[in-house]
Amino acid sequence: MAGDNQVNEKLLELQGLLKRIWEAGAVSESDYRNKLNGMWRSALFWRNAGRSAPWILNQLAAVEDEFMAFEMPTTTTLERKAGRRR
Fold it and tell me: Which of 31, 37, 49, 65 gives 27 a disulfide partner, CB atoms 3.0 to 4.6 angstroms apart?
């Protein structure tokens, strides 16, 4: 399905973001592995539960906000959504 491809692409994008955060030392290796596994397992669970791709992508947007907070702690969620950065 086309929606599944979008979900997979978003998961890979988030995986790369999380890896950069870990490499920068913002999270421990344990946290990195836990967040990575949790993200993939959640998406698989949501798929198996019959959730639509747009719903899963919406949930992954919240995950992205959480990860972005590690990368840019001085920028608010609202500013990121508007595309502005300090």
Answer: 31
**DSSP letters spanning 16-41:** HHHHHHHHTTSS-HHHHHHHHHHHHH
Which two tokens mark 73? 């702690």
Reported as a pLDDT band with limits 50, 70 and 90, residue 21 is very high
Reading the block at residue 56, the tokens are: 């899963």
The Cα angle at residue 9 between residues 15 and 78, in degrees rounded to 5: 70
What single letter denotes the amino acid at residue 83? G
- The phi and psi torsions of 58 (rounded to 5 degrees) equal -65, -40
Q: Is the pLDDT of residue 79 over 50?
A: yes
